[in-house]
Fold this sequence. Notes:
Layout: E1 12-14, E2 22-28, E3 35-43, E4 52-57, E5 63-64, E6 66-69, E7 79-86, E8 91-99, E9 118-124, E10 137-139, E11 141-145, E12 154-163, E13 167-170, E14 178-182, H1 190-193, H2 199-203, E15 208-209, E16 223-225, E17 230-231, E18 236-246, E19 250-260, E20 284-293, E21 299-307, E22 319-324, E23 330-333, E24 338-345, E25 359-366, E26 372-375, E27 382-387, E28 395-403, H3 413-428, E29 432-436, E30 445-447
Amino acid sequence: MKRTTLTAILFIVTAIVAHAASISVEVKNPSNFKRTSVPVVISLKEYGTVRSAKVSNTNSNETVTCQLDDLDQDGLMDELCFLVDLSAKEKRTFTVMMSEGYDLSADNTAGPTTPARVYVEMLLSNKKVKEENKHDLYISQLTVDRGVNPYNQLHHHGAAFENELVAYRIYFDHRQTVDIYGKYHRQLELRQTQFYPDDTQKKTGFGDDVLWVGNTFGVGTLRGYDGQQPTMLYDVLHRSQRILARGPLRTIVEVTDEGWLPNAPAPSPTEIVDAKLLQMEQRVTLTTRYTLYANRRDCFVEVGVKPTMANQKTTLPRFSTGIINVKESEEFSDHHGLRGCWGTDWPVSAKDSVGHKRETVGLGICLPAGNIVGEWPADKDNYGYEISMNYGRKLCYAISFCSDNEDFGYHSATEWFDYLKQWKREVMKAVEIRIKPTPSHPKGGGFE
């Protein structure tokens, strides 16, 4: 398995000719099985300023919902995405019209009236609000300095995001754990429950937190590695979370650890370090993006690492990841990057267990085999790996989960592990995307 193949579902198509008003995009399923909600992502950097877009099926002229995203927050759109369903070996062609103005806005399916199929939020805790699902201090990003831990000042402890099937959250502290929220029915819920449904909401079929993660990997959390055990991201000069995309088709949450000192011990609560004495050598900056598309239970993780100090010859850190070993869970591994478990445990600590029930979940992670240094035997906390990364090259992997509560999902270890095997086939085999010639784009382009 090639290291680059895990970017299959996150395929970025770069056009050749700038400032095109329209392009034709051919999407082909190379596999002998059906694929649903396959993301097609097109880089806009060669097209100048794009403020509106319209995607339509070339054969039927049916409009397809699309989304424009400004990922670097500079006021210019960087990517366009849309989702397609493909039968086995099917090929479909789409016309993408783009404009520097807003003249397509009436037809632009990424407009404000498009029904959202995803949702994301960050909230500061409002101390005047007693209800756990009524907080109202919404924010888009937050950066804290070294030694500041906003975990308890943020409602649900960090960014939370969902689609119709699943919901995730990212802890805003040294753990940066990926935690999960399971559902009973296909629906968006976080705006109403804020990750903590009340009794009335539970009785009417809303979901809830379904996993107690503690200090484990949760579901695919990236950590350091000191050669003996995973390490937390304790010593960070500036830690950030920000929302890059809000829908209607995908959410993107970015976590940045600027100036992380790998394998540093937990700081003393009374530690005060003179800036002149602060160690700067060997610090690196980690940037992690979590992307969740509509109608997909998997979340895509993209990680980049670079030295914090320019021209510094920094030794590349060692890294680890994996999934929590749910109590008495059954494990599956193909020993080539796909690993999962199925188990049942309390979703909260013992002191908070009143009002909760034991939850059964299936967890999964799919890593590129070329980045795996070692797969570790299960311990009491995790099914873990040591993984490698390179400066200037992104690590892309995927995580997934299900809750046994779902009326649309999986309800046994056998079903879940079968899903994981099929999931890997999709993740590792790219759909073929090619930009074809049009009058405004005479050379075509793209790649397979």
